[in-house]
Design goal:
By secondary structure, the protein is an all-alpha fold. The chain has four helices and no strands. The protein has one domain: Uncharacterised protein PF10982, DUF2789 (Arc Repressor Mutant, subunit A, Orthogonal Bundle).
């Protein structure tokens, strides 16, 4: 896997979604939780292009896969940590 070079904001931009922190939090809150038996790209709220991108990047273990994994965890948690800086690269973020 490539080093993490993308932020959550840049992932939302890539997916054609609003990448402002409040919008990301709202999107996740609206669509979570995702059942543990459903892969992220198979969630019903993605359009075909978004689902395809998520699946392809994970399958290829591309440089997007780290931030996609982080997004996956956020959809499965019961609440969002509001202290997350959505513009930081994952390897710079601390929990």
């Amino acid at each position: 896997m490539e080093p993490n070079t993308h932020s959550l904001s840049s992932l939302f931009d890539q997916l054609g979604l609003d990448s402002k922190t409040a919008s990301i939090e709202q999107f996740i809150a609206l669509h979570k939780p995702i059942s543990s038996n459903i892969e992220l790209h198979k969630a019903t709220f993605w359009n075909a292009s978004q689902a395809s991108f998520l699946k392809q990047m994970k399958d290829e273990d591309a440089d997007w896969s780290g931030i996609i994994d982080q997004l996956d965890v956020m959809f499965r948690k019961s609440n969002i940590q509001h202290s997350v800086n959505y513009n930081l690269k994952p390897h710079l973020m601390r929990n």
